Amino acid sequence: QVQIMESGGDLVQPGGSLELSCSASALNLNDYDIGWFRQVPGKEREGISCISNTDGRTRYAPSVEGRFSISRNKDTVYLQMNSLKEEDTAVYYCATKCALFTSTGYVSMYPGPENEFWGQGTQVTVSS
Hints:
Layout: E1 3-7, E2 11-12, E3 18-25, E4 34-39, E5 46-51, E6 58-60, E7 68-73, E8 76-81, E9 90-95, E10 98-102, E11 105-109, E12 122-126
Parallel strand pairs: 2-12
Antiparallel strand pairs: 1-3, 3-8, 4-5, 4-9, 5-6, 7-8, 9-12, 10-11
């Protein structure tokens, strides 16, 4: 059974850093474009970053560009988050798809319903 797992969420002070990890069982993440998303209660899920599986190209939402960095190492995808702000507080998810607004337009990479997988999320809380 395919399972996506996020880890690394924590409570951190404003200005601090965290690194989130995305891994999978019964699935090779290297075969997929991987997106990071976040959701605040009462709001829609927001795509914030994406890494391509073909050329490694990375993309970011304006709200995180310059502060967050997505990368891959073997079969794990990471989201390095620096200069965290209180408004970054959310549940963070990774998925085998990308859907986000960037400064140059909307980016969508969709593998089809049979290949769309999501993790359960990891809580990031930025508070003093």
